[in-house]
Amino acid sequence: LNYGFIQDASVQGRVETATRDSVTGGLVGWNQGTIGFGQSDSSVYTHGIDPLSPYVLYDGAAGGLVGVNKGGIVASWSRGIVTNLDQTSAAIGGLVGANDVDGWVMNSYSMADVSSPGCVTVCSPPDMVGGFVGIVNYDGPPPYLYQPVGIQLSYSAGHVSGGGPNAEVGGFDGRNIYSAVLPYTYWDVTK
């Protein structure tokens, strides 16, 4: 949990949740502060969402750098892998699992490989798998260049795979709830 400022932090290793519904990140699980020049070369594993318990927004979110971002991330990157180990839904992304309405990311990239087997049958919420971010929850106007809002000036370039009958899989984002504009973002991945 980060409420402050993290700068020039670098991590490497393995991070795995012990239970379902956990928030997991290579550097930080839950970010409400600012991360500048953060680097993660980690293997991040989640067990996704418990289908038998009531769903709470961002349960099972996992990212190569940050699980849930409600703060700022600038000039940061991730590589390694982000994987959902169970046949459940999850929100997983190469850099960020879930980017909230207050979260912003700028000048960052992910080269992490992201994968989830998905649900055997239709699951709710669906499996959300993205090369950069699993789910984007931003409904504001398109940001001006370098305005700390939404996601901009960022890219992903890792392998992305997801399964299940209603999985939402994308090279950059898995699910963009409000179809928010993400200026100057791109991907170069194998889907």
Q: Which runs of at least 5 residues are low in confidence (pLDDT < 50)? A: none
CA-CA gap between termini: 31 Å
Radius of gyration: 14 Å
Structural class: mainly beta
Q: Main β-sheet: number of strands, strand sense, barrel status?
A: 8 strands, parallel
**Secondary structure tally: strands:** 23
Sheet-strand content, in percent, reads: over 45%
* Number of contiguous helices: 0
Based on CA inertia axes, which overall geometry fits?
Answer: globular
Overall residue-averaged pLDDT value: 92
Q: Secondary-structure element sequence?
A: EEEEEEEEEEEEEEEEEEEEEEE
Q: What helical percentage do the residues reach?
A: under 10%
Give a quick summary of the entry:
0% of the residues lie in helices and 46% in strands. It has 191 residues and is an all-beta fold. Strands 2, 6, 10, 14, 15, 19, 20 and 23 form an 8-stranded parallel β-sheet that branches.
Characterise the protein shown here:
With 191 residues, the protein is mostly beta strands. The chain contains no helices and 23 strands. Strands 2, 6, 10, 14, 15, 19, 20 and 23 form an eight-stranded parallel beta sheet that branches. It has a five-stranded parallel beta sheet with strand order 1-5-9-13-18, with no helix packed on it.
Characteristics:
191 residues; mainly beta; 23 strands
Helix and strand arrangement:
Elements: E1 5-7, E2 10-16, E3 24-25, E4 28-31, E5 34-36, E6 39-46, E7 61-63, E8 66-69, E9 72-74, E10 77-84, E11 91-93, E12 96-99, E13 104-106, E14 109-110, E15 113-116, E16 128-130, E17 133-136, E18 150-152, E19 154-156, E20 160-162, E21 168-170, E22 173-176, E23 185-187
Parallel strand pairs: 1-5, 2-6, 3-7, 4-8, 5-9, 6-10, 7-11, 8-12, 9-13, 10-14, 10-15, 11-16, 12-17, 13-18, 14-19, 15-20, 16-21, 17-22, 19-23
